[in-house]
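[09:14] KT: can someone run the structure on this one? pasting the chain below
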Amino acid sequence: MRTRTLVSLTVLFTVIVALAAQQPAPKATLVKAGRLLDVRAGAYRTNQGIWIDGGRIRQVGAFDEVRAAAPKDIAVIDLGRAAVLPGLIDVHTHLLDAMDPGNAAADSLILTLTKESPTKRALLGAAMAREILDGGFTTVRNVGHSGIDGDVSLRDAIRNGWVPGPRIVAAARKIAPYGGQALPVQSSVIQTLIDLDFLTASHPAEGRRAVLENLRAGADVIKVVADDGGRVIDEETMKAIADEAHRANLRVAVHAMTKLGIQSAIAAGVDSIEHGDEATDEQFAAMARKGIVLVPTVWPKELLPVPRTMASLPNIDAQVNTYVAGERTKLDRARKAGVKIAFGSDCWFGFSGKTRGQMTRLVLESLQTSFGMTAADVLRSATVSAAELLNIPGVTGAVEATAYGDLIAVDGDPLANAGDLEKITFVMKGGAVIRDDARARPAPQS
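[09:31] RB: done, structure tokens below
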């Protein structure tokens, strides 16, 4: 009992407190914001000051009042007329993957596991981390396909200041049904490949053990694959996984595509369902009652990965249109049922001519342009709602006292048009300036 209590406290502090980088905190800064977006209210506050000290926001309010309270010699960053809002959050990333979208997903995973060394994937992860941070995403939840502990190690490297990147809530290995996920290979090699990326659970004892193994590896969140084709983790095993994770203060994210997999996740009381393709209206209503968040992972037509073997089919355009329309219907039904939505890109592949940050932003913006959400709801899904899902409200996701100094500035009006996120000119993480396109910033008002 005493050991379990200490483990639970340790994990809680890891997720909430130890998100802080172990490198020296940047010097105190006063940010002047001509327009500061209150993402909860969906409204701008004009001529605001944001005093950041020790990496955290100390005071927010009318600029003259904050300026009078701050030290006289504090450094001032004037962001002029740009819209200032919290750093963005992506709750469904795969930073150690950049697979070929022209391959089927299963083929891409097999090639990654058999050809890419852990060292190469680690270096890729460092590159993707920098790209997504430059894109305005200061926090991510990485949910698997990272080798045995690749995302945990990347998280720690960023905290220690070895490489630049966002704060990472890391999952370590996915917990999947017997046989893993997307691994249609011969029986003689299947277990070797499974062990490189997954833990498996066929009964409650295995589920609990898998959680404890990820906890031992340093995971901040538990990612479960509820279904892979006809193989589904049953309700009893899913509940054992969720109970063990919650006992250690870890949230549980569940990949669930089928009605059966979704029902197993709902019955177990998990924290989020990723994808949810076959969810019924009754299941969405149950999710809303239980407070289970949907991470819809929807992609617009122009970003949808179409395998080369399908690209030349005569009816492929119609198939893609039908799929995207179905995804919009799914999201509409979930929102109508009152299900909370958090943004997750699920970018596991590379996209020609785009960095990971640019691609992730396009996926976020498409929630308005292709899937019918308002710009305000799009921004909430990638800020306050995402922070609540990660169990770090007050830590990030809003520009408020005690939160980290995670800010972006946009040359436009993202509250009206999410596409204006393409005009990000400034990124700050924990009070440290990551990107400052000063020449692209509008001149301060006199």
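[09:33] KT: thanks! Residues 316-336 form the longest helix (21 residues).
[09:34] RB: yep, looked fine to me
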